[in-house]
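Hey team,

Sharing the DNA damage regulated autophagy modulator 2 run so nobody has to redo it. Sequence (338 residues) first:
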Amino acid sequence: MLLGSAPWGPAPSLSIPGLRTWRPALAGSSEEGRSWKYNGEQNSWFLPSQNLKFSAEDKTKQVTVKSEDLFEMWWFQQGLSFLPSALVIWTAAAFIFSYITAITLHHVDPALPYISDTGTVAPEKCLFGAMLNFAAVLCVATIYVRYKQVHALNPEGNCIIRLNKAGLVLGLLSCLGLSLVANFQKTTFFIVHVCGAVLTFGMGSLYMFVQTILSYQMQPKIHGKQVFWIRLLAVVWCGVSAFSMLTCSSLLYSGSFGPDIVQKLHWKPEDKGYVLHMITTAAEWSMSFSFFGFFLTYIRDFQKISLRVEANLHGLTLYDTAPCPVNNERTRLLSRDL
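Structure output:
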């Protein structure tokens, strides 16, 4: 997979007559990566590889039309900005749909149940598991694209490269935890479910922290300070929620409120540990929203990057023959029309 420059970057402009070479920066166009030569005597531009020739006026119009077309694109059509958007929308939909189903069937109480409690009993657990598994795939794709983007923007920064690799590992572990939470309910496999939750929230929080450090080191050269402050706010929000959830859940499951608390799905105000339960669930939902807010900050960054796939053929047939040079295919992974 190759990462190319985004088609909505600054449109190239024709230079003064003294400049002899012009290379378009519009990714995905038929002119990408080709050098146009300028003929000063005829005041025209031509592409030697295909014998194409345009006047300077035609060339200016061509670039202007392409730039206008790009500005007419919807925000989610620009680059890979749909990826973090889809991640947040899909994950939120998984929570909402399973919550509505569990409430309708009276499997949990309407007042702030655990997120995983809404996916404990059938049929909502089937919906919860399937949607969160797909959310984990979207999360892997988002984290990988972010990793490649930071690496491309900082190819020589040793500190940034190490932090970027650490962020990739932490993010992938968080995705693994999300899949474990989706497939192992706490009433059936409590230990596995807790391990998944620790990976999801713990490694996810560290991932957010690492990315915030990267944002600090990349500003103001790569992006503005505003992005860093927004991500820092999301990290603080996540940290406060995590501390509240960890403290109250430790007290709640210490054994002082009965052995069957793990299996308990319905809570009443007069039950022991009700206050701790409500604080824990509120902190869990709050922490999830901080994750949503953090990934939404990727939308603007992902508008500046595109993803490609390249097929390298070793022969013209699939028989066991000697390798021969062939023309390789290089196309977009997803159509721009989508």
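The helical segments are 56-71, 82-104, 124-153, 158-183, 190-218, 225-252, 274-296, 298-302.

Ping me if you want the raw files.
A.
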